[in-house]
Amino acid sequence: MNKQMRAVFTIVDYSRGKQIADIYINEQIPIRIVTHGHGMADSVILDYLGLGENKKSIMISLLSPERTKRIFSILEEKMYLKKPGKGIAFSVPVSSMTSFLSSIVEADSTKNTELIKEDELNMADGYQHELIISIITKGHFPEVKAAASAAGAKGGTLIHALGLGGEEAQKFLGISIQPEKDVILIVVRKDEKNKVMKAIAEAAGINTEGRGISFSLPVDCALGLSETAIPQFNTEETIE
Fold first, then answer.
1. Nearest by Cα to 133 from 44, 27, 213, 226
2. GO molecular-function annotation terms (predicted)?
3. Residue 128: is it exposed, middle or buried by C-beta count within 10 angstroms (0-12/13-18/19+)?
4. What is the distance of C-alpha 97 from the center of its chain?
5. Measured between alpha carbons, how far is 79 from 82 in angstroms, rounded to an integer?
6. In sequence order, what are the residues at sequence separation of 6 or more whose Cβ sits closer than 8 angstroms to the Cβ of residue 150?
7. Which CATH number is 5-108 given?
8. How do residues 2-32 score in pLDDT, each as one tens digit?
């Protein structure tokens, strides 16, 4: 893989989900995953702040750097993601992927690509934000939400998952890997990362009932992250 690809996350109100899907379809993005979520902020507060509805649409895709810049430019122009309450989008560098997947993304990078100046979208080597990923025992999200918010996190997304840890992982961690887990995604400023991760560890870390572990990844481009936004966490909706 000649270029470092990006995993691009886009989260908007559910009513705007079709617009996001149409953009990705029109741009012929070959790899995209869609799921739904719910905001956990009180609906009255959301109405008062103009932050939109509780139900959310989440799009995840894999793109080349050039395609990432283009899709962010389109999201900014058509979805107004730089305005508060319109949603967020961010990208995370991907260190490796299978050769088949890489060939698809590489081929896609040559299509319909209009180069955009890096400084227009703040995509640079000096990362300003980081994505914190916390994996905890199901049911302990409230502790993480409270701790992260108190430490300065402006929002997050909860995804329900299954633990697949083998015997070696269980032996190393000294705990039993429960099948149901909560995976929490939180984007924070780089200078806030350590404080937020420490707060999460104290509230739901490996030595608590939450049995949580956390790690972070650099976010190299972002839209819609408001430093003054009221903390608003989203939780995944189970789709039958």
1. 213
2. enzyme regulator activity
3. middle
4. 19
5. 9
6. 199
7. 3.30.70.120
8. 578 899 999 888 899 999 999 999 998 988 8
Using CA atoms, how far apart are residues 74 and 159, in angstroms rounded to an integer?
27
The encoded tokens of residue 164 equal 């697949």
Main-chain dihedrals φ then ψ at residue 62, nearest 5 degrees: -115, 125
* Exposure letters 160-197 (e unless 16+ CB within 10 A, then b): eeebebeeeeeeeeeeebeeebbbbbbbbbeebbebbb
Decide if 5-108 and 129-165+178-222 have a common fold.
yes
Which value, to the nearest 10 degrees, does the dihedral of the CA atoms of residues 83, 81, 115, 28 take? -160
Element holding 116 (H helix, E strand): none
Nearest one of 226, 193, 205 to 52, comparing CA atoms = 226
Output 217 or 126, whichever has higher pLDDT.
217
Report residue 74 as tokens. Answer: 């389109």
Collapsing DSSP to helix, strand or coil, 168 comes out as helix
**Average pLDDT, integer, range 220-233:** 62
Domain boundaries, the chain: 5-108, 129-165+178-222
Assign a CATH topology to domain 129-165+178-222: Alpha-Beta Plaits (3.30.70)
Write down the residue that tokens 């790899």 correspond to. 31
Question: Residue 121: which of 91, 94, 86 has the closest Cα?
Answer: 91
